[in-house]
Amino acid sequence: MKTLSNFFDPKCPLCATNTRPFRVVDAVSYFEYASCDFIFADPSLLARADSGEALRPYDSSYWEKELPSARERAFGPSLARVAEAMLYARRPISRFLDICSGPGYLLDALRHHLPHAPETFFGVELYPPPQEFCSTHPNYSVGDLASLTGKFQGGVCIEVLEHLTPSMARRLASDLARVSDPEAFYIFNTGLVSYVKEEDPGYLDPFQRGHITVWSVSAARRIFEPVGFSVLPIVGKTWAFAVEFQRKEKSNSENLLNRIWTALPENKTLLTDPATGSIMYILGLESARAYA
Predict the structure, then answer these.
(1) What residue numbers bound the domain in which 248 lies?
(2) pTM tops 0.85, yes or no
(3) Cα separation, 217 vs 166, whole angstroms
(4) For residue 33, is it within any domain?
(5) Within a domain: residue 202?
(6) Cα dist from 279 to 52, 112, 282, whole Å
(7) Residue 244: inside a domain, yes or no?
(8) 40 phi and psi, to 5 degrees?
(9) Cα 212 to Cα 126: distance, rounded to the nearest angstrom
(10) Considering the domain boundaries, does residue 28 fall inside one?
(11) pLDDT per residue as tens digits for the range 181-216
């Protein structure tokens, strides 16, 4: 089954240039534009999402599937992304944000592994599951980035960007800039174009997982650079990139891996807990090096 959009090539929503068909998934056409290195679903579908329509209802069946996966991510790879971000950051971190935190399980995982610093970690989620399934962490809040007060020096955004239209991503970038201190450092964990093309073509999934866009470093630069962020690749990771706010260095070609050897003492101390030891610090080092 094909959709109407198979009969024309829409403009790229990032640069308004002609695109070409990429693939049809569940009767939804996806398109790509090579210069932006961006893949996106049928513009009519993106427009529906922008209008507020939920492409995948957040009902009990959704949360039945999503909550176990959310907990597995929070107590596994998401911890590694947190530790990496802290080692890459070039300023001390006193407030660290989990962007679009879902049920907030990452806050619970961090409270378990770094019990000396629960006040450091924050999470925000606009569409949480029922309250009984959400984290009880005092820094877990329901709302969007615009609802937050205070500034952050670092954070992560795990498996979120692929659910956002370009308009939504622009709003996220703008709101994140407003709550970021200079040199604030964030890791975005999302399957990039090279990952979808070479490793996991099944990543495209408009209705079950709600994956309607596929980003790259160059595509992300069109969203984040206008509001003051630099977008940096993470060598070896085809499913993540980093952004740094009001970065002092002009070059975007820096190998972030080199930063782990000169990580700030304050951030290394934050990753080492009197009760649980240095496991988070080691996790950051090893997960940064594993894909180099």
Answers:
(1) 59-290
(2) yes
(3) 14
(4) no
(5) yes
(6) 42, 12, 5
(7) yes
(8) -145, 155
(9) 19
(10) no
(11) 999 999 999 999 999 999 999 999 999 889 999 999
